[in-house]
Amino acid sequence: MAEHLIIIDRLSDWKAEFPRLPIVSAKDYLDKPEIARERGLHVLNLCRSYRYLSIGYYCSLLGEARQHKIMPSVRTINDLSRKAIYSLDFDDLDAKAQTAFGVGPVGLQVTVMEMDIFFGQCASRPLQELARQLFDAFRAPLMRIEFRQQEKKWRLHAVKALQLQTLSPEQETQFINALTAFVSKRWQKPRTRRRYRYDLAILQNPKEVLPPSDSRALKKFIRAGNRLGIDVELIERKDFSRLGEFDGLFIRETTAIDHYTYQFAKKAEREGLVVIDDPDSILKCTNKVYLDELLRANRISTPKTVILSRDNLDSVDHQIQYPIVLKIPDGSFSRGVF
Protein backbone atom coordinates (compact mmCIF):
# COMPACT_ATOMS: atom_id res chain seq x y z
CA MET A 1 0.00 0.00 0.00
CA ALA A 2 1.30 3.50 -0.85
CA GLU A 3 2.45 5.83 1.92
CA HIS A 4 -0.09 8.44 0.83
CA LEU A 5 -3.62 8.14 -0.48
CA ILE A 6 -6.21 10.53 -1.89
CA ILE A 7 -9.92 10.07 -1.15
CA ILE A 8 -12.53 11.38 -3.59
CA ASP A 9 -16.27 10.80 -3.86
CA ARG A 10 -16.13 9.65 -7.46
CA LEU A 11 -13.11 8.39 -9.33
CA SER A 12 -14.20 10.55 -12.26
CA ASP A 13 -13.39 13.64 -10.15
CA TRP A 14 -9.69 12.87 -10.64
CA LYS A 15 -8.77 14.20 -14.08
CA ALA A 16 -6.12 12.69 -16.33
CA GLU A 17 -3.88 15.75 -16.00
CA PHE A 18 -3.82 15.54 -12.20
CA PRO A 19 -0.73 14.03 -10.52
CA ARG A 20 -0.47 10.25 -10.76
CA LEU A 21 -1.07 9.47 -7.11
CA PRO A 22 -2.99 6.61 -5.49
CA ILE A 23 -6.70 7.45 -5.29
CA VAL A 24 -9.64 5.66 -3.72
CA SER A 25 -13.36 6.34 -3.60
CA ALA A 26 -14.80 7.36 -0.25
CA LYS A 27 -16.95 4.24 -0.19
CA ASP A 28 -13.98 1.94 -0.74
CA TYR A 29 -11.94 3.77 1.89
CA LEU A 30 -14.66 3.15 4.45
CA ASP A 31 -15.50 -0.41 3.43
CA LYS A 32 -12.32 -2.18 2.30
CA PRO A 33 -10.66 -4.04 5.18
CA GLU A 34 -7.20 -4.02 3.57
CA ILE A 35 -7.18 -0.21 3.73
CA ALA A 36 -8.47 -0.19 7.29
CA ARG A 37 -5.61 -2.45 8.38
CA GLU A 38 -2.91 -0.14 7.03
CA ARG A 39 -1.12 1.99 9.63
CA GLY A 40 0.66 5.28 9.15
CA LEU A 41 -0.96 6.19 5.84
CA HIS A 42 -0.92 9.87 4.87
CA VAL A 43 -4.42 10.55 3.56
CA LEU A 44 -5.84 13.59 1.77
CA ASN A 45 -9.61 13.71 2.08
CA LEU A 46 -10.91 15.59 -0.99
CA CYS A 47 -14.55 14.60 -0.61
CA ARG A 48 -17.20 16.99 -1.89
CA SER A 49 -18.60 17.68 1.58
CA TYR A 50 -17.29 17.61 5.13
CA ARG A 51 -20.72 18.27 6.60
CA TYR A 52 -21.34 16.62 9.97
CA LEU A 53 -22.06 12.89 9.52
CA SER A 54 -21.52 13.10 5.75
CA ILE A 55 -19.37 10.48 4.02
CA GLY A 56 -16.52 13.00 3.92
CA TYR A 57 -16.84 13.53 7.66
CA TYR A 58 -16.76 9.78 8.31
CA CYS A 59 -13.65 9.37 6.14
CA SER A 60 -11.74 11.74 8.43
CA LEU A 61 -13.30 10.30 11.58
CA LEU A 62 -12.49 6.67 10.75
CA GLY A 63 -9.13 7.66 9.31
CA GLU A 64 -8.10 8.95 12.70
CA ALA A 65 -9.42 5.80 14.37
CA ARG A 66 -7.21 3.77 12.00
CA GLN A 67 -4.20 5.90 12.95
CA HIS A 68 -3.98 7.36 9.46
CA LYS A 69 -2.55 10.86 9.20
CA ILE A 70 -5.55 12.40 7.51
CA MET A 71 -6.22 15.91 6.26
CA PRO A 72 -8.50 17.54 7.19
CA SER A 73 -8.80 16.14 10.68
CA VAL A 74 -12.16 15.98 12.43
CA ARG A 75 -11.05 18.89 14.59
CA THR A 76 -10.32 20.99 11.50
CA ILE A 77 -13.70 20.08 10.02
CA ASN A 78 -15.31 21.22 13.25
CA ASP A 79 -13.29 24.45 13.26
CA LEU A 80 -14.35 25.25 9.70
CA SER A 81 -17.97 25.16 10.80
CA ARG A 82 -17.51 27.45 13.81
CA LYS A 83 -16.94 31.15 13.23
CA ALA A 84 -16.18 31.64 16.90
CA ILE A 85 -12.93 29.73 16.47
CA TYR A 86 -11.62 32.29 13.98
CA SER A 87 -10.68 34.70 16.75
CA LEU A 88 -8.63 32.17 18.72
CA ASP A 89 -4.88 31.63 18.68
CA PHE A 90 -4.07 34.12 15.92
CA ASP A 91 -1.78 36.57 17.63
CA ASP A 92 -0.41 38.23 14.52
CA LEU A 93 -2.94 37.19 11.88
CA ASP A 94 -4.68 40.56 11.73
CA ALA A 95 -1.35 42.39 11.52
CA LYS A 96 -0.26 40.21 8.60
CA ALA A 97 -3.57 40.90 6.87
CA GLN A 98 -3.08 44.66 7.23
CA THR A 99 0.38 44.37 5.70
CA ALA A 100 -0.71 42.03 2.92
CA PHE A 101 -3.86 43.84 1.82
CA GLY A 102 -2.97 47.42 2.72
CA VAL A 103 -5.57 50.14 2.23
CA GLY A 104 -6.27 49.51 -1.46
CA PRO A 105 -5.88 51.81 -4.48
CA VAL A 106 -6.66 55.49 -4.00
CA GLY A 107 -10.28 56.24 -4.79
CA LEU A 108 -11.35 52.59 -4.60
CA GLN A 109 -13.01 51.40 -1.41
CA VAL A 110 -12.33 47.67 -1.10
CA THR A 111 -14.12 46.05 1.83
CA VAL A 112 -13.89 42.34 0.94
CA MET A 113 -10.82 40.29 -0.03
CA GLU A 114 -10.75 36.60 -0.94
CA MET A 115 -7.82 34.24 -1.34
CA ASP A 116 -7.73 30.58 -2.34
CA ILE A 117 -5.22 28.39 -0.52
CA PHE A 118 -4.25 24.98 -1.88
CA PHE A 119 -2.05 22.95 0.49
CA GLY A 120 -0.67 26.14 2.02
CA GLN A 121 0.03 27.81 -1.33
CA CYS A 122 -1.74 30.79 -2.89
CA ALA A 123 -1.40 32.34 -6.33
CA SER A 124 -0.18 35.72 -5.04
CA ARG A 125 3.40 35.78 -3.78
CA PRO A 126 2.85 38.81 -1.46
CA LEU A 127 0.11 36.83 0.30
CA GLN A 128 2.13 33.64 0.70
CA GLU A 129 3.17 34.21 4.30
CA LEU A 130 -0.43 34.92 5.26
CA ALA A 131 -1.51 31.80 3.36
CA ARG A 132 0.97 29.66 5.29
CA GLN A 133 -0.32 30.94 8.61
CA LEU A 134 -3.92 30.30 7.63
CA PHE A 135 -3.06 26.80 6.43
CA ASP A 136 -1.37 26.16 9.73
CA ALA A 137 -4.51 27.25 11.59
CA PHE A 138 -6.97 25.41 9.33
CA ARG A 139 -5.20 22.42 7.81
CA ALA A 140 -7.67 21.76 5.03
CA PRO A 141 -6.44 20.87 1.53
CA LEU A 142 -8.48 23.39 -0.48
CA MET A 143 -9.76 26.57 1.15
CA ARG A 144 -11.25 29.93 0.29
CA ILE A 145 -10.53 32.60 2.88
CA GLU A 146 -12.58 35.76 3.10
CA PHE A 147 -11.47 38.91 4.88
CA ARG A 148 -13.68 41.91 5.48
CA GLN A 149 -12.66 45.40 6.45
CA GLN A 150 -14.13 46.57 9.73
CA GLU A 151 -13.22 49.92 11.25
CA LYS A 152 -10.37 50.25 8.74
CA LYS A 153 -8.90 46.90 9.74
CA TRP A 154 -9.02 43.59 7.89
CA ARG A 155 -10.69 40.80 9.86
CA LEU A 156 -11.03 37.11 9.07
CA HIS A 157 -14.68 36.62 8.13
CA ALA A 158 -15.06 33.14 6.63
CA VAL A 159 -13.12 29.97 5.88
CA LYS A 160 -14.72 27.60 3.40
CA ALA A 161 -13.58 24.28 1.97
CA LEU A 162 -13.46 24.21 -1.84
CA GLN A 163 -14.63 21.25 -3.90
CA LEU A 164 -12.25 19.65 -6.36
CA GLN A 165 -14.81 19.29 -9.15
CA THR A 166 -15.71 23.02 -9.05
CA LEU A 167 -12.18 24.33 -9.71
CA SER A 168 -11.63 26.49 -12.77
CA PRO A 169 -8.86 25.58 -15.26
CA GLU A 170 -6.63 28.23 -13.68
CA GLN A 171 -7.33 26.85 -10.21
CA GLU A 172 -6.66 23.30 -11.41
CA THR A 173 -3.17 24.37 -12.47
CA GLN A 174 -2.61 25.88 -9.05
CA PHE A 175 -3.96 22.70 -7.45
CA ILE A 176 -1.61 20.46 -9.45
CA ASN A 177 1.46 22.53 -8.58
CA ALA A 178 0.56 22.86 -4.91
CA LEU A 179 -0.25 19.16 -4.48
CA THR A 180 2.95 18.06 -6.19
CA ALA A 181 5.03 20.35 -3.97
CA PHE A 182 3.18 19.37 -0.81
CA VAL A 183 3.51 15.63 -1.32
CA SER A 184 7.15 15.74 -2.37
CA LYS A 185 8.28 18.00 0.46
CA ARG A 186 6.26 16.73 3.35
CA TRP A 187 5.20 13.17 2.82
CA GLN A 188 7.56 11.32 0.53
CA LYS A 189 10.67 9.86 2.11
CA PRO A 190 13.60 8.36 0.20
CA ARG A 191 13.21 4.61 0.11
CA THR A 192 16.90 4.19 0.90
CA ARG A 193 16.51 6.09 4.13
CA ARG A 194 16.27 4.07 7.31
CA ARG A 195 12.70 3.83 8.52
CA TYR A 196 12.19 5.08 12.03
CA ARG A 197 9.36 4.28 14.38
CA TYR A 198 8.75 7.88 15.46
CA ASP A 199 9.51 11.41 14.23
CA LEU A 200 10.73 13.95 16.77
CA ALA A 201 11.16 17.68 16.21
CA ILE A 202 13.64 19.61 18.35
CA LEU A 203 12.90 23.33 18.40
CA GLN A 204 16.10 25.36 18.61
CA ASN A 205 17.43 28.80 17.76
CA PRO A 206 20.96 28.71 16.33
CA LYS A 207 21.35 32.43 17.13
CA GLU A 208 20.45 32.17 20.81
CA VAL A 209 23.36 33.36 22.94
CA LEU A 210 22.72 31.03 25.89
CA PRO A 211 20.67 28.12 24.57
CA PRO A 212 19.51 25.33 26.91
CA SER A 213 21.41 22.89 24.67
CA ASP A 214 24.35 23.81 22.47
CA SER A 215 25.03 22.35 19.02
CA ARG A 216 27.17 19.58 20.49
CA ALA A 217 24.39 18.48 22.83
CA LEU A 218 21.83 18.60 20.02
CA LYS A 219 23.97 16.28 17.91
CA LYS A 220 24.05 13.83 20.81
CA PHE A 221 20.26 14.03 21.07
CA ILE A 222 20.00 13.14 17.37
CA ARG A 223 22.34 10.16 17.69
CA ALA A 224 20.60 8.90 20.82
CA GLY A 225 17.20 9.22 19.16
CA ASN A 226 18.33 7.32 16.08
CA ARG A 227 19.58 4.45 18.23
CA LEU A 228 16.12 4.26 19.81
CA GLY A 229 14.33 4.23 16.46
CA ILE A 230 13.43 7.93 16.51
CA ASP A 231 14.06 10.19 13.52
CA VAL A 232 15.15 13.50 15.06
CA GLU A 233 14.99 16.75 13.09
CA LEU A 234 16.10 20.20 14.25
CA ILE A 235 13.47 22.84 13.50
CA GLU A 236 13.25 26.60 13.95
CA ARG A 237 10.57 29.25 14.31
CA LYS A 238 9.91 29.25 10.54
CA ASP A 239 8.83 25.59 10.74
CA PHE A 240 5.70 26.29 12.81
CA SER A 241 3.41 25.02 10.04
CA ARG A 242 5.25 21.66 9.89
CA LEU A 243 4.46 20.51 13.43
CA GLY A 244 1.79 18.13 12.18
CA GLU A 245 4.49 16.04 10.50
CA PHE A 246 5.96 14.88 13.81
CA ASP A 247 5.02 12.61 16.69
CA GLY A 248 6.76 14.67 19.35
CA LEU A 249 8.22 18.11 20.06
CA PHE A 250 11.23 18.71 22.30
CA ILE A 251 11.81 22.41 22.98
CA ARG A 252 15.49 23.24 23.42
CA GLU A 253 15.09 26.98 23.24
CA THR A 254 14.52 29.29 26.19
CA THR A 255 10.77 29.34 26.80
CA ALA A 256 8.48 32.14 27.91
CA ILE A 257 4.74 32.67 27.96
CA ASP A 258 4.87 35.73 25.69
CA HIS A 259 7.12 33.92 23.21
CA TYR A 260 6.63 31.78 20.13
CA THR A 261 7.98 28.76 22.03
CA TYR A 262 4.72 28.77 24.01
CA GLN A 263 2.72 28.91 20.75
CA PHE A 264 4.73 25.93 19.47
CA ALA A 265 3.91 23.99 22.62
CA LYS A 266 0.20 24.82 22.43
CA LYS A 267 -0.11 23.85 18.79
CA ALA A 268 1.86 20.64 19.25
CA GLU A 269 -0.38 19.64 22.14
CA ARG A 270 -3.50 20.35 20.04
CA GLU A 271 -2.07 18.20 17.26
CA GLY A 272 -1.66 15.30 19.69
CA LEU A 273 2.15 15.36 19.85
CA VAL A 274 4.13 14.42 22.92
CA VAL A 275 5.52 17.78 24.08
CA ILE A 276 8.45 18.69 26.30
CA ASP A 277 8.04 21.42 27.61
CA ASP A 278 4.26 21.23 27.43
CA PRO A 279 2.19 24.46 27.68
CA ASP A 280 1.15 23.77 31.27
CA SER A 281 4.77 23.35 32.33
CA ILE A 282 5.78 26.58 30.61
CA LEU A 283 2.92 28.43 32.29
CA LYS A 284 3.70 27.12 35.74
CA CYS A 285 7.27 25.97 36.04
CA THR A 286 8.83 29.14 34.65
CA ASN A 287 7.19 31.01 37.54
CA LYS A 288 9.26 30.87 40.71
CA VAL A 289 6.29 31.81 42.91
CA TYR A 290 4.40 28.76 41.68
CA LEU A 291 7.50 26.60 42.05
CA ASP A 292 8.04 27.68 45.65
CA GLU A 293 4.42 26.92 46.53
CA LEU A 294 4.61 23.53 44.81
CA LEU A 295 7.78 22.55 46.66
CA ARG A 296 6.29 23.62 49.98
CA ALA A 297 3.08 21.70 49.35
CA ASN A 298 5.06 18.54 48.66
CA ARG A 299 7.40 19.10 51.62
CA ILE A 300 10.53 19.18 49.51
CA SER A 301 13.52 20.76 51.24
CA THR A 302 14.75 23.95 49.59
CA PRO A 303 16.84 26.96 50.56
CA LYS A 304 14.83 29.54 52.48
CA THR A 305 12.71 31.48 50.02
CA VAL A 306 10.97 34.84 50.39
CA ILE A 307 8.51 36.26 47.88
CA LEU A 308 9.32 39.95 47.56
CA SER A 309 6.90 42.77 46.85
CA ARG A 310 6.77 46.49 47.43
CA ASP A 311 5.13 45.84 50.78
CA ASN A 312 7.86 43.68 52.33
CA LEU A 313 10.99 44.88 50.55
CA ASP A 314 12.27 46.87 53.53
CA SER A 315 12.00 43.90 55.87
CA VAL A 316 13.85 41.36 53.73
CA ASP A 317 17.03 41.79 55.80
CA HIS A 318 15.22 40.34 58.78
CA GLN A 319 13.71 37.41 56.88
CA ILE A 320 16.69 35.95 55.08
CA GLN A 321 20.43 35.95 55.58
CA TYR A 322 23.07 37.11 53.14
CA PRO A 323 24.39 36.11 50.68
CA ILE A 324 21.14 35.77 48.73
CA VAL A 325 20.11 34.92 45.18
CA LEU A 326 17.58 37.35 43.71
CA LYS A 327 15.36 36.13 40.87
CA ILE A 328 12.55 37.61 38.83
CA PRO A 329 9.38 35.46 39.07
CA ASP A 330 9.13 34.35 35.45
CA GLY A 331 12.73 34.11 34.31
CA SER A 332 14.18 30.96 32.78
CA PHE A 333 17.58 29.47 32.12
CA SER A 334 19.36 31.88 34.53
CA ARG A 335 17.82 35.00 33.04
CA GLY A 336 16.91 37.61 35.62
CA VAL A 337 19.13 36.07 38.31
CA PHE A 338 21.28 38.39 40.43
Q: What are the segments in which pLDDT stays under 50 over at least 5 consecutive residues?
A: 188-193
Alpha-carbon Rg, integer: 24 Å
Question: Percent of residues in helical segments?
Answer: 25-40%
CATH architecture of the largest domain: 2-Layer Sandwich
Oligomer: single chain
User: Could you please say which CATH topology of the largest domain applies here?
Assistant: D-amino Acid Aminotransferase, Chain A, domain 1
H/E topology pattern: EEHHEHEHHEHEEHEHEEHEHHH
> Total number of helical segments?
12
Structurally, the number of domains stands at: 3
Q: From the helix content, strand content and strand pairing, which structural class follows?
A: alpha/beta
Our estimate of the beta-strand percent is 15-25%
Main beta-sheet annotation? 4 strands, parallel
Give the beta-strand count.
Answer: 11
**Overall residue-averaged pLDDT value:** 82
Q: State the strand order across the main sheet.
A: 2-1-3-4
CATH class of the largest domain: Alpha Beta
